[in-house]
């Protein structure tokens, strides 16, 4: 870990302790230690080998020295993990606003349960903040200006992975005119659902020329910093891009290092140290000799490991699995045989049934489910039994013309508050597939919501639970539900949980996906496409599945239509 990383951990602890209202002397001890580490010329990790050397540094006593050694050794500090469980880390974003200090942040958190800048903005707009003692209308006006600037700069904003992709695509095309072997690294390459900044690597014989070309990208808002091999810019969209060029011999090492995660890299560094090597972004070294660096595969091999997919590099067990030869063979796009949620003009989609079917067939699928909303979702033009019956006739007619491809008669039927379904059993009996979902009554208690879904799962005609937590990334939290109980029932009752590929949802998240896999639950990856363009979002669901360690066999829509039809029988 670099000095700035260790200092950053100590600063975060200080901020969280201050929000808690801890003693000022204790809070400042962390800030002083962080300041000392940030100003060092040498690597604090090298000094940490001896606690005696650490305590010679200003502001670092025996207790702080042990904490620093723990960070260097483990890549994290247990104290910070505990604080993060106790307090939402998103509170630190509020502290970045000029009008906000720890005391005000604590007051808002304790009295209004404000956990993020977005929460604060809504509370001010609703007039809740102004009513608190010590705030008022003047504060409200000032803080809204700051929040507007916060969003405008984008310095603290995280972009959905699809938003980042839309910015990355033209930038990579532009850089390809000057630079070879361009790769996007960082959290984007690891498939994280949101991206804070963009890391781009390339190979160039003339780094200066490459940097000049980069800063002239038309979408550049301002140049943050410029060097011989690294330049950082802010795009007009409000996201920072760091561009680095390397020589071919060190490119693999750079790609590994800048893909991360930090925790994964710390663990790799520890493996190298045990083998007598030194690891950095330029390669693996034995003394002064570089012994690996050209490719990631070469780097892992030198450490005695097989290649680990970027989506798994989170230090959540992948290294132990690699050492034991138990890495999963992750699912790939070519494995998907059908898409199991989509919407047409019959409800809230943008394209016709035929247009959606032909687009899905063009992707090489064997089958495709049209799942327009049921009547409860009237705002989306949900279908009642009569309209659904007419659509089923239309599908049968279309299937007669589509050789080697099948459109499934299906629906996204609402689970009502009492666990019954929004459509009669008579029509559901005629369907090839029934997808169940919650769109209303999201504020039920955890017990009520769980029972609601369990009752629906007893229905003999239902197959899939769509977007199981109901979240919208950055907009709407998950509803209260006991997913472990749902998973247990799904594993026992031939029910499937959906991984919704819509970048607004990506529901289930990677943590729940892995829990479902371990519980023996089979899943589906669907796009929830509302247009032919939306069918392309399958890649985001796949990223999420790969982050959850899913293999081909864990996902039922990797089966042929004949195999899949047998699987969905209740």
Write the layout of secondary structure elements.
Layout: H1 3-20, H2 24-39, H3 44-47, H4 51-54, H5 62-74, H6 78-86, H7 91-95, H8 102-112, H9 117-125, H10 136-153, E1 159-160, H11 161-175, E2 180-184, H12 186-189, E3 194-195, E4 198-203, H13 207-215, E5 220-226, E6 230-235, E7 240-246, H14 251-259, H15 262-274, E8 278-280, E9 283-286, E10 289-292, H16 296-302, H17 318-323, E11 338-339, H18 353-361, E12 367-370, H19 385-399, E13 406-414, H20 425-428, E14 433-437, H21 446-457, E15 464-465, H22 483-493, E16 496-500, H23 510-518, E17 523-526, H24 538-547, H25 561-567
Parallel strand pairs: 4-7, 11-12, 12-13, 13-14, 14-15, 15-16, 16-17
Antiparallel strand pairs: 1-3, 2-4, 5-6, 6-7, 8-9, 9-10
Helix pairs in contact: 1-2, 1-6, 1-8, 9-10, 14-16, 21-22, 23-24
What does this structure look like?
The chain is an alpha/beta fold. It folds into 4 domains: about 5-155, DNA polymerase, domain 1; about 180-245, Beta Polymerase, domain 2; about 250-325, 2-Layer Sandwich (Beta Polymerase, domain 3); about 335-565, Metal-dependent hydrolases (TIM Barrel, Alpha-Beta Barrel). The protein contains 25 helices and 17 strands. Helix 22 links the parallel strand 15 (about 465) and strand 16 (about 495-500). Helix 14 (about 250-260) crosses helix 16 and helix 23 packs across helix 24 (about 540-545). It starts with a helix and ends with a helix.
């Amino acid at each position: 870990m670099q000095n700035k990383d260790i200092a950053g951990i100590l600063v975060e602890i200080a901020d969280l302790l201050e929000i808690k209202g801890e003693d000022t002397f204790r809070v400042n001890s962390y800030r002083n230690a962080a300041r000392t580490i940030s100003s060092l010329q040498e690597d604090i990790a090298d000094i940490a080998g001896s606690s005696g050397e650490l305590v010679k540094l200003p502001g670092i006593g025996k207790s702080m020295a042990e904490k620093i050694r723990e960070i260097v050794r483990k890549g994290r500090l247990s104290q910070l993990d505990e604080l993060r469980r106790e307090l939402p880390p998103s509170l630190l974003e509020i502290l970045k606003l000029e009008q906000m200090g720890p005391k005000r942040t604590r007051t808002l958190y304790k009295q209004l349960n404000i956990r993020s800048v977005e929460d604060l903005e809504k509370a001010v707009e609703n007039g809740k903040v102004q009513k608190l003692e010590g705030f008022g209308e003047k504060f409200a006006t000032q803080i809204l200006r700051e929040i507007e600037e916060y969003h405008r700069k984008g310095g603290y904003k995280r972009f959905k992975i699809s938003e980042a992709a839309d910015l990355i695509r033209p930038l990579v095309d532009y850089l390809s005119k000057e630079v070879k072997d361009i790769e996007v690294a960082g959290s984007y390459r690891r498939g994280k659902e949101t991206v804070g900044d963009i890391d781009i690597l390339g190979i160039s014989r003339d780094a200066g020329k490459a940097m000049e070309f980069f800063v002239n990208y038309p979408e550049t808002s301002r140049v943050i910093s410029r060097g011989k091999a690294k330049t950082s810019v802010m795009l007009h969209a409000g996201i920072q891009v760091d561009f680095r060029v390397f020589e071919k011999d060190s490119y693999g090492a750079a790609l590994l290092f800048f893909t991360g995660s930090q925790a994964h890299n710390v663990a790799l560094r520890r493996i190298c140290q045990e083998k007598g090597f030194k690891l950095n972004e330029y390669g693996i070294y034995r003394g002064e000799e570089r012994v690996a660096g050209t490719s990631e595969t070469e780097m892992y091999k030198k450490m005695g490991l097989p290649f680990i997919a970027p989506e798994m590099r989170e230090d959540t067990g992948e290294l132990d699995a690699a050492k034991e030869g138990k890495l999963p063979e992750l699912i790939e796009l070519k494995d998907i045989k059908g898409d199991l949620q989509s919407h047409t003009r019959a409800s809230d989609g943008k394209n016709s049934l035929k247009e959606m079917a032909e687009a899905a067939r063009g992707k090489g699928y064997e089958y495709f489910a049209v799942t327009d909303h049921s009547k409860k979702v009237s705002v989306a033009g949900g279908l009642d039994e009569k309209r659904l019956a007419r659509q089923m006739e239309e599908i049968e007619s279309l299937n007669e013309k589509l050789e080697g491809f099948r459109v499934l008669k299906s629906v996204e039927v609402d689970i009502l508050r009492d666990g019954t379904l929004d459509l009669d059993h008579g029509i559901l009996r005629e369907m090839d597939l029934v997808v169940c979902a919650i769109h209303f009554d999201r504020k039920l208690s955890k017990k009520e919501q769980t029972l609601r879904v369990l009752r629906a799962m007893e229905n003999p005609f239902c197959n899939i639970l769509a977007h199981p937590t109901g979240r919208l990334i950055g907009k709407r939290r998950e509803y209260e539900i006991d997913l472990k109980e749902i998973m247990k029932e799904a594993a026992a009752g031939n029910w499937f949980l959906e991984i919704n590929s819509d970048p607004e949802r990506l529901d289930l998240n990677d943590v729940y996906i892995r829990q479902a896999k371990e519980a023996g639950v089979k899943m589906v990856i669907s796009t929830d496409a509302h247009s032919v363009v939306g069918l392309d979002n399958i890649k985001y669901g796949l990223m999420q599945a790969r982050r959850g360690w899913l293999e081909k066999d864990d996902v039922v829509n990797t089966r042929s239509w004949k195999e899949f039809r047998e699987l969905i029988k209740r």
